[in-house]
Protein backbone atom coordinates (compact mmCIF):
# COMPACT_ATOMS: atom_id res chain seq x y z
CA UNK A 1 0.00 0.00 0.00
CA UNK A 2 2.86 2.38 0.79
CA UNK A 3 4.39 1.72 -2.61
CA UNK A 4 1.04 2.43 -4.29
CA UNK A 5 0.77 5.73 -2.36
CA UNK A 6 4.28 6.79 -3.43
CA UNK A 7 3.63 5.70 -7.01
CA UNK A 8 0.35 7.67 -7.08
CA UNK A 9 2.03 10.83 -5.77
CA UNK A 10 4.90 10.51 -8.25
CA UNK A 11 2.51 9.91 -11.16
CA UNK A 12 0.32 12.95 -10.62
CA UNK A 13 3.16 15.35 -9.76
CA UNK A 14 5.76 14.17 -12.30
CA UNK A 15 7.43 16.94 -14.28
CA UNK A 16 8.97 16.56 -17.70
CA UNK A 17 12.13 17.88 -19.31
CA UNK A 18 11.69 21.54 -20.22
CA UNK A 19 9.26 22.40 -17.42
CA UNK A 20 10.54 25.23 -15.24
CA UNK A 21 9.39 23.58 -11.98
CA UNK A 22 10.76 20.11 -12.69
CA UNK A 23 12.28 20.04 -9.19
CA UNK A 24 11.20 21.38 -5.82
CA UNK A 25 13.26 24.44 -4.90
CA UNK A 26 15.68 24.09 -1.99
CA UNK A 27 16.91 27.70 -2.16
CA UNK A 28 16.11 29.64 1.01
CA UNK A 29 14.89 33.17 0.29
CA UNK A 30 15.69 35.49 3.21
CA UNK A 31 13.05 37.96 2.00
CA UNK A 32 10.37 35.33 2.70
CA UNK A 33 11.22 35.13 6.40
CA UNK A 34 12.12 32.03 8.38
CA UNK A 35 12.27 28.56 6.84
CA UNK A 36 8.72 27.17 6.93
CA UNK A 37 6.46 24.60 5.24
CA UNK A 38 3.77 25.83 2.82
CA UNK A 39 0.78 27.57 4.44
CA UNK A 40 -2.49 28.67 2.86
CA UNK A 41 -3.43 32.26 3.70
CA UNK A 42 -6.46 32.48 1.39
CA UNK A 43 -8.32 29.45 0.05
CA UNK A 44 -9.99 29.19 -3.37
CA UNK A 45 -13.75 29.73 -3.45
CA UNK A 46 -16.43 27.50 -4.93
CA UNK A 47 -17.79 28.91 -8.17
CA UNK A 48 -21.02 28.52 -10.17
CA UNK A 49 -21.02 29.77 -13.76
CA UNK A 50 -22.88 29.49 -17.03
CA UNK A 51 -21.20 27.88 -20.02
CA UNK A 52 -18.84 30.20 -21.88
CA UNK A 53 -17.70 32.19 -18.87
CA UNK A 54 -14.14 32.04 -17.50
CA UNK A 55 -13.56 30.58 -14.03
CA UNK A 56 -10.76 31.79 -11.79
CA UNK A 57 -9.39 30.31 -8.56
CA UNK A 58 -7.04 32.43 -6.42
CA UNK A 59 -4.91 31.11 -3.58
CA UNK A 60 -2.58 33.11 -1.36
CA UNK A 61 0.18 31.05 0.19
CA UNK A 62 3.53 31.33 1.92
CA UNK A 63 6.53 29.11 2.61
CA UNK A 64 10.30 29.14 2.52
CA UNK A 65 11.79 27.84 0.26
CA UNK A 66 9.21 29.05 -2.26
CA UNK A 67 6.62 26.25 -2.65
CA UNK A 68 6.12 24.42 -5.90
CA UNK A 69 2.42 24.54 -6.81
CA UNK A 70 0.44 21.96 -8.76
CA UNK A 71 -3.22 22.27 -9.79
CA UNK A 72 -5.54 19.28 -10.32
CA UNK A 73 -9.03 18.73 -11.62
CA UNK A 74 -10.66 15.62 -10.14
CA UNK A 75 -7.19 14.23 -9.41
CA UNK A 76 -5.71 14.93 -12.85
CA UNK A 77 -2.77 17.32 -13.05
CA UNK A 78 -3.30 20.55 -15.03
CA UNK A 79 -0.67 22.38 -17.06
CA UNK A 80 -0.70 25.65 -18.98
CA UNK A 81 -2.68 25.25 -22.19
CA UNK A 82 -5.30 26.98 -24.33
CA UNK A 83 -7.83 25.80 -21.73
CA UNK A 84 -5.97 26.35 -18.47
CA UNK A 85 -3.77 29.30 -17.49
CA UNK A 86 -1.68 29.05 -14.31
CA UNK A 87 0.08 32.15 -13.01
CA UNK A 88 2.20 31.99 -9.84
CA UNK A 89 3.96 34.84 -8.03
CA UNK A 90 5.93 34.76 -4.78
CA UNK A 91 2.81 34.66 -2.60
CA UNK A 92 -0.15 33.88 -4.89
CA UNK A 93 -1.16 31.35 -7.52
CA UNK A 94 -4.10 31.73 -9.90
CA UNK A 95 -5.80 29.10 -12.05
CA UNK A 96 -7.98 30.37 -14.88
CA UNK A 97 -10.29 27.99 -16.77
CA UNK A 98 -11.24 29.58 -20.08
CA UNK A 99 -14.58 29.28 -21.90
CA UNK A 100 -15.99 26.83 -19.37
CA UNK A 101 -18.26 23.98 -20.43
CA UNK A 102 -20.30 21.53 -18.37
CA UNK A 103 -17.44 19.03 -18.72
CA UNK A 104 -15.21 21.45 -16.76
CA UNK A 105 -17.31 20.98 -13.60
CA UNK A 106 -15.50 19.26 -10.76
CA UNK A 107 -13.14 19.63 -7.83
CA UNK A 108 -10.10 21.85 -8.42
CA UNK A 109 -7.27 21.19 -5.98
CA UNK A 110 -3.98 22.97 -5.27
CA UNK A 111 -0.97 21.06 -3.93
CA UNK A 112 1.86 23.24 -2.54
CA UNK A 113 5.19 21.58 -1.69
CA UNK A 114 8.62 22.50 -0.40
CA UNK A 115 11.31 20.46 1.40
CA UNK A 116 9.63 21.19 4.76
CA UNK A 117 6.17 19.85 3.94
CA UNK A 118 3.10 20.04 1.75
CA UNK A 119 -0.52 21.23 1.97
CA UNK A 120 -3.65 20.95 -0.18
CA UNK A 121 -6.79 23.04 -0.62
CA UNK A 122 -9.78 22.57 -2.94
CA UNK A 123 -12.82 24.30 -4.43
CA UNK A 124 -15.73 23.13 -6.57
CA UNK A 125 -16.68 24.51 -9.99
CA UNK A 126 -20.27 24.00 -11.21
CA UNK A 127 -20.95 24.89 -14.85
CA UNK A 128 -24.54 24.91 -16.14
CA UNK A 129 -26.05 25.50 -19.55
CA UNK A 130 -28.16 28.62 -20.17
CA UNK A 131 -31.28 26.43 -20.43
CA UNK A 132 -30.92 25.14 -16.91
CA UNK A 133 -32.85 27.00 -14.25
CA UNK A 134 -31.92 27.51 -10.67
CA UNK A 135 -34.77 25.27 -9.59
CA UNK A 136 -33.26 22.36 -11.54
CA UNK A 137 -29.92 22.67 -9.79
CA UNK A 138 -29.90 20.30 -6.84
CA UNK A 139 -26.34 21.18 -5.92
CA UNK A 140 -27.10 24.73 -4.77
CA UNK A 141 -29.32 26.31 -2.20
CA UNK A 142 -30.71 29.77 -2.40
CA UNK A 143 -30.59 32.48 0.21
CA UNK A 144 -32.90 35.41 -0.47
CA UNK A 145 -32.84 38.60 1.49
CA UNK A 146 -36.33 40.11 1.28
CA UNK A 147 -36.07 42.87 3.81
CA UNK A 148 -38.73 45.50 3.03
CA UNK A 149 -36.31 48.37 3.61
CA UNK A 150 -34.27 47.34 0.60
CA UNK A 151 -35.34 48.32 -2.88
CA UNK A 152 -33.89 45.22 -4.53
CA UNK A 153 -33.87 41.57 -3.69
CA UNK A 154 -30.45 40.04 -3.21
CA UNK A 155 -30.09 36.45 -4.32
CA UNK A 156 -27.06 34.65 -3.07
CA UNK A 157 -26.25 31.25 -4.51
CA UNK A 158 -24.00 29.13 -2.40
CA UNK A 159 -22.73 25.62 -2.81
CA UNK A 160 -24.35 23.28 -0.31
CA UNK A 161 -21.71 22.79 2.36
CA UNK A 162 -21.09 19.57 4.25
CA UNK A 163 -19.29 19.36 7.58
CA UNK A 164 -16.27 17.01 7.73
CA UNK A 165 -16.94 13.39 8.59
CA UNK A 166 -14.45 10.56 9.06
CA UNK A 167 -15.50 7.38 7.26
CA UNK A 168 -12.33 5.50 8.23
CA UNK A 169 -10.21 5.92 11.37
CA UNK A 170 -7.21 4.13 12.85
CA UNK A 171 -6.96 2.08 16.05
CA UNK A 172 -4.68 1.95 19.09
CA UNK A 173 -1.42 0.08 18.55
CA UNK A 174 1.82 -1.07 20.17
CA UNK A 175 4.99 -0.44 18.13
CA UNK A 176 8.57 -1.32 18.99
CA UNK A 177 10.99 1.60 19.11
CA UNK A 178 12.78 2.03 15.76
CA UNK A 179 10.03 0.36 13.69
CA UNK A 180 7.81 1.97 11.02
CA UNK A 181 4.11 2.61 11.58
CA UNK A 182 1.37 4.34 9.62
CA UNK A 183 -2.00 5.82 10.64
CA UNK A 184 -4.60 5.89 7.85
CA UNK A 185 -7.95 7.67 7.71
CA UNK A 186 -10.50 8.87 5.18
CA UNK A 187 -12.61 12.02 5.43
CA UNK A 188 -15.47 13.55 3.45
CA UNK A 189 -16.90 17.07 3.38
CA UNK A 190 -17.53 20.10 1.19
CA UNK A 191 -15.47 22.19 0.81
CA UNK A 192 -12.81 19.54 0.99
CA UNK A 193 -11.59 19.52 4.61
CA UNK A 194 -8.09 20.40 5.70
CA UNK A 195 -6.56 17.66 7.85
CA UNK A 196 -4.01 18.22 10.64
CA UNK A 197 -2.20 15.60 12.73
CA UNK A 198 -1.09 15.97 16.36
CA UNK A 199 0.88 13.81 18.81
CA UNK A 200 0.24 14.77 22.44
CA UNK A 201 -1.26 18.10 21.24
CA UNK A 202 1.91 18.89 19.24
CA UNK A 203 1.18 19.54 15.56
CA UNK A 204 3.08 17.20 13.27
CA UNK A 205 4.75 18.53 10.14
CA UNK A 206 6.75 16.73 7.48
CA UNK A 207 10.29 16.05 8.70
CA UNK A 208 12.94 13.34 8.43
CA UNK A 209 10.87 10.98 10.60
CA UNK A 210 7.23 12.02 10.07
CA UNK A 211 5.56 11.98 6.65
CA UNK A 212 2.07 13.36 5.97
CA UNK A 213 0.46 11.70 2.95
CA UNK A 214 -2.72 12.65 1.08
CA UNK A 215 -4.37 11.73 -2.19
CA UNK A 216 -7.31 13.06 -4.17
CA UNK A 217 -9.72 10.35 -2.94
CA UNK A 218 -9.83 11.79 0.57
CA UNK A 219 -7.33 9.32 2.03
CA UNK A 220 -4.89 10.76 4.55
CA UNK A 221 -2.03 9.12 6.42
CA UNK A 222 0.59 9.92 9.03
CA UNK A 223 3.66 7.73 8.58
CA UNK A 224 6.39 7.54 11.23
CA UNK A 225 9.42 5.94 9.62
CA UNK A 226 11.45 5.43 12.80
CA UNK A 227 9.25 5.34 15.90
CA UNK A 228 10.80 7.10 18.88
CA UNK A 229 9.78 7.06 22.54
CA UNK A 230 8.80 10.74 22.15
CA UNK A 231 6.08 9.57 19.71
CA UNK A 232 4.37 7.58 22.47
CA UNK A 233 1.00 8.96 23.51
CA UNK A 234 -2.24 10.20 21.94
CA UNK A 235 -2.39 10.67 18.15
CA UNK A 236 -5.12 13.14 17.13
CA UNK A 237 -6.41 13.83 13.62
CA UNK A 238 -8.47 17.00 13.05
CA UNK A 239 -10.49 17.74 9.90
CA UNK A 240 -12.07 21.16 9.41
CA UNK A 241 -13.80 23.25 6.78
CA UNK A 242 -16.08 26.28 6.90
CA UNK A 243 -19.01 24.07 7.91
CA UNK A 244 -17.44 22.55 10.97
CA UNK A 245 -14.73 20.47 12.56
CA UNK A 246 -14.35 16.87 13.66
CA UNK A 247 -11.56 14.74 15.07
CA UNK A 248 -10.65 11.29 16.32
CA UNK A 249 -7.92 9.95 18.60
CA UNK A 250 -5.98 6.75 19.00
CA UNK A 251 -3.10 5.74 21.24
CA UNK A 252 0.43 4.85 20.17
CA UNK A 253 2.31 2.82 22.76
CA UNK A 254 6.04 2.70 21.99
CA UNK A 255 7.73 -0.40 23.34
CA UNK A 256 11.29 0.34 24.39
CA UNK A 257 13.81 -1.46 22.24
CA UNK A 258 15.80 -3.94 24.27
CA UNK A 259 19.48 -3.24 24.62
CA UNK A 260 21.50 -5.96 22.88
CA UNK A 261 23.89 -7.74 25.26
CA UNK A 262 26.21 -10.46 23.98
CA UNK A 263 25.71 -13.96 25.47
CA UNK A 264 27.82 -14.84 28.49
CA UNK A 265 28.14 -18.12 30.35
CA UNK A 266 27.50 -17.76 34.07
CA UNK A 267 27.64 -21.49 34.75
CA UNK A 268 30.04 -23.85 33.03
CA UNK A 269 30.53 -27.60 33.20
CA UNK A 270 33.92 -29.23 33.81
CA UNK A 271 35.61 -32.38 32.58
CA UNK A 272 34.19 -35.50 34.17
CA UNK A 273 35.38 -39.13 34.38
CA UNK A 274 32.64 -41.77 34.65
CA UNK A 275 32.37 -45.51 34.25
CA UNK A 276 30.94 -46.84 31.04
CA UNK A 277 27.19 -47.21 31.32
CA UNK A 278 26.82 -44.68 34.12
CA UNK A 279 24.63 -41.57 33.55
CA UNK A 280 26.24 -38.15 33.37
CA UNK A 281 24.75 -34.62 33.64
CA UNK A 282 26.47 -31.55 32.19
CA UNK A 283 25.03 -28.19 33.31
CA UNK A 284 25.52 -24.78 31.68
CA UNK A 285 23.71 -21.45 31.95
CA UNK A 286 24.08 -18.29 29.84
CA UNK A 287 22.59 -14.80 30.01
CA UNK A 288 22.20 -12.03 27.43
CA UNK A 289 19.64 -9.82 25.65
CA UNK A 290 17.77 -11.18 23.79
CA UNK A 291 17.83 -14.46 25.75
CA UNK A 292 20.54 -16.67 24.21
CA UNK A 293 19.66 -19.93 22.47
CA UNK A 294 21.91 -22.75 23.70
CA UNK A 295 22.83 -25.73 21.51
CA UNK A 296 24.95 -28.76 22.35
CA UNK A 297 27.62 -30.42 20.19
CA UNK A 298 29.89 -33.44 20.59
CA UNK A 299 33.32 -33.43 18.98
CA UNK A 300 32.44 -30.35 17.01
From TrEMBL:
SUPFAM superfamilies: Immunoglobulin (SSF48726). The keyword Repeat applies. Keywords: Repeat. Residues 38-126, 164-253, 263-300 form the Ig-like domain. PANTHER family: KETTIN HOMOLOG, TITIN. This is Kettin. It comes from Cydia pomonella.
Amino acid sequence: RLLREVSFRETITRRYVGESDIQISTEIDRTLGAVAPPKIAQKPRNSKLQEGADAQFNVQLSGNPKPRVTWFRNGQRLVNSNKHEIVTTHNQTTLRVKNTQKSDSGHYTLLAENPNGCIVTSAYLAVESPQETYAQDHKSQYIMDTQQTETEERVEIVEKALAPQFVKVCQDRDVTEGKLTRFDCRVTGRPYPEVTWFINDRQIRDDYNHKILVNESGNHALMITNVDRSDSGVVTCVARNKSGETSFQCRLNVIEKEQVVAPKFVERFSTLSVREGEPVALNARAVGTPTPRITWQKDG
